[in-house]
Predict the structure.
Amino acid sequence: TPPAATSVLLRVQFVDHHRVDLVERVTAVEPIAERLLAQHLIQVEEYSMIMDARSHQEKMRLLYHYLDHRGNAAKSAFYTILREVEPHLIQDLGKGKHPIRFQCSSGGVFECSLTGLRFSMKSSGELEYSIVNWDTNLLTPTGLQPAGPLFSIDCPQESLRELGLPHCEILSVDPAVQFVDQHRAELVQRVTQVEPMADALITERLMQEEEYRKITTAGISQEKMRRLYVFLNSVGDTAKQAFYRILKERQPLLVQELEGQGSRLDS
């Protein structure tokens, strides 16, 4: 199996295997559905059905229904979004409760999207691996602390040539983008001047006419903001930076209040 195909299959396996847990425990269904809509992996009507469902569990059941119809590409995208939105769930559900297995039909380099492990195989073989707990009794006397996950890896055919461990990388996040992402719920509820912001975004050629109409023809301001967030997530950091700047001009008191909340939390 090629590395890319293997990664997709592992994501799909995770989504299918943990269906019950994810239906019960995923709470950020709306932003996940918005991202899937922006990637054209669910339809507008399906998105509306999910939004109209009463509980998180019912929203997730509907989302799974649509994912099942869309196939592996949609499930793989769902996993990627879930890893960004609720990473604690991915970590918790992937703590070695179920070993990951896959068959390599030939030699080559393979990467696991769930763990970040890279395997260089001499020839065909079967890999089985999982995340296991560190033995604190061994670490404590040395004064050392775990620097990452601990893996149990087995290859009965002994065809594993090299193993590449995942590394941690600290990426700088633009403060404007962080603000827009972090305060999504508050902004959806409290931003009232949505049309002028959409006007500014289309004037700066960051938004197309079709997207502008979708936002401005929505009913209440909260629905306008949800559609605006769909647009922002589809375009990325450039649009979020512009939105933050426009919001700061239009509703400076709201920005000051929310930034003040962040400062108090950091102190």
Notes: The chain is about 60% helix and 10% strand.
